Amino acid sequence: MAELHKLSAVQAARQIALRRFSPVELLDALLARIERLEPNLRAWVTIDADGARAAARDAESTLTTRSATLGPLHGVPCGLKDIYLARGLPTAAGYGPLKDSIAAEDAETVSRLREAGAIVLGKTVTTQWASSDPSPTANPWHPDRTPGGSSSGSGAAVAARCVPFALGTQTGGSILRPAAYNGVVGLKPTYGRVSRRGVYPLAWSLDHCGPIARTVADAALVLGVVAGHDPADPRSLTAPVPRYSASLRGVGPPTLGVLPQFMERADPHVRTHIEGVIRAFESAGATVREVALPSPIDLYLAAQRLTMQAEATAVHAAWLARDPDPYSPHIRAEIMVGQLVPGTAYLHAQRIRRRLAAETAAALTGIDAFILPTASNVAPDPSTTGDPSFQAPWSLLGLPAISLPSGLDADGLPYGVQLVGALLAEPTLLKVAAWCERLLAFDATPPLT
Amino acid sequence: MRFDPAMTREDVLAALIDDAVDAWGAERAATLRSSLEGTAQAIWTVAQETLEPTDVEP
After folding, report:
1. Where are the domains positioned within chain A?
2. Which of A34, A253, A319, A373 is the most buried (most CB within 10 A)?
3. Does B42 reach chain A within 8 Å, measured CB to CB?
4. How confident is the model at residue A2 (pLDDT cuts 50, 70, 90)?
5. Looking at chain A, which residue has its C-alpha nearest residue B42?
């Protein structure tokens, strides 16, 4: 049982259901790995070994009842970015004064995970308030590179095989970029598909919750568990939740739209790599066509920035005025400057946002997904969380997007390929992602000893 | 500052810097330079997009 930490969530859940090993054995394997790697990885804020062990014993005990109905994640441990509330555990959001703040209840997503049988192993490192000040977490592929942010710990912990999956959040690019920089799968669902209740906000109209995992099947499984209407989240969608895992079956070659505006902005070696990936997809039967977005990327990024800054300022200005010292430099500056931006500029950005949404939806007509690099670069040095410009446009529009690991560069750092679909088209997006994943056959693991 | 599409990028930045000095003092405003520049660029970029009164609502 020495290799249990390598199992995906789907594999672990299936084997637990078959009584091949117990949830306690799986948990112990992961705790041992965390104990060994964590001093250098720094991916976790809180490890709830006692709580997780108690939950694993309960899950084990359920298995002794032959007729027991098991949830789809029965006995599978997970990590939670430390802005998700989890009953009985502290949630600090990277903000010192909250480090002892114990949650009285679960976020809606956490509640759904537990209902499905998942075991909360602990809380993963976030940049402060899920913004852009770098976190202490190391990239498991290279200790001198950023794991990305803001879901730094979730990306690194999943890549390091410390946990099969973790929840992250994305306001600019904070699920997809850490996924790409860490060589794992990140899924940002349609805005409103997953409840934000019980998750610290950064910018209400941009915040998305979603999984970071190691396979598309795991991302689909977790999305199926956490998605669904929540009347306590005012932006929660009421659309029924499809069976995402079932949508992965019988996958044929997709029709993909390449966005030249992004390809031109990518680092040359990233562009070359993604062009090679696209050629391989074409050779395997994909239909690929160029799609020109009518508006420049800089307009998407400007609207996203003004939206995020104004909403984050509204969230934080009072706390910052009361006690500025615990705020990290980048978010503090953004909140201070955000107070100077005219309301007219914010509203103008919202009108442009609506126009961009219509233009982009039209550009998606007749194709299954856009394809582009997840990031303009591979993981840079840890003075930054990386470049959000290839992910932020889809956060602005609420479109579902997924990042798949697609190879390694000459320094052994992961590349990521990104697929973006239409609103609520997760079944199609996941189907396309599963097809791409099979062709990419990425099986490298970080060089951790 | 005013939201005025006729302002140049430099005008927008200068107006934001003036407001930052008024609000936070010269010393603290100097620490905000990177955010001020990014914000000025964003305001100027969206301001170049003309929207008529009957165009899309927020």
Report:
1. 4-247
2. A373
3. yes
4. low
5. A302
Query: Pick the catalytic residue: A150, A195, A205, A247?
Result: A150
DSSP A217-250: HHHHHHHHHHBS--TTSTT---SPPP-TTGGGSS
Torsion A46-A50-A53-A58 (CA) sign: negative
In DSSP terms, A211 is beta-bridged to: A167
**8-state DSSP, A416:** E
Note the pTM of the prediction, 2 decimals: 0.98
Contact B56 A338 (CB under 8 A): no
Task: Name the residue type at position A398.
Answer: G
Question: What ipTM was predicted for this assembly?
Answer: 0.98
Chain A CB within 8 Å of residue B50 CB: no
Domain boundaries along the sequence of chain B: 9-47
Strand stretches in chain B, DSSP E: none
Optimal mutation site among B46, B50, B54, B56, interface A, most CBs of chain A within 10 A: B46
Per-residue model confidence (pLDDT) at position A273: 98
Q: Which residues of B touch A341 (CB under 8 A)?
A: 39, 43
Alpha carbon separation from A236 to A10, A63, A198, A439, B35 (Å, rounded): 27, 34, 13, 35, 32
The structure tokens 């020495």 sit at A2
Residue carrying the six token digits 């996958």: A251
* Nearest-angstrom CA–CA distance, A75 and A117: 6
- CA of A310: which chain B residue's CA is closest? B39
CA dihedral A213, A215, A218, A220 (to 10 degrees): 110
Per-residue pLDDT of A361-416, as tens digits, reads 999 999 999 999 999 999 999 999 999 999 999 999 999 999 999 999 999 999 99
Model pLDDT for residues A327-351, shown as the tens digit of each residue? 999 999 999 999 999 999 999 999 9
Q: How is residue A102 annotated by DSSP?
A: B
Cβ of B42 within 8 Å of Cβ of A306? The answer is: yes
Both tokens of A270, joined, read 């990233």
The predicted structure's pLDDT at residue A67: 85
Distance separating alpha carbons of residues A222 and A380, to the nearest angstrom: 29
Neighbours of A106 (CB within 10 A): 22
pLDDT tier at A251, thresholds 50, 70, 90: confident
Catalytic site includes residue A6: no
CATH class of the domain at A4-247: alpha beta
A150 included as an active-site residue: yes
pLDDT in tens, A271-315: 999 999 999 999 999 999 999 999 999 999 999 999 999 999 999
pLDDT tens sequence across A78-128: 999 999 999 999 999 999 999 999 999 999 999 999 999 999 999 999 999
Q: Does B19 touch chain A (CB under 8 A)?
A: yes
pLDDT band at A269 (very low <50, low <70, confident <90, very high): very high
| Span between the terminal Cα atoms of chain B, in Å | 21
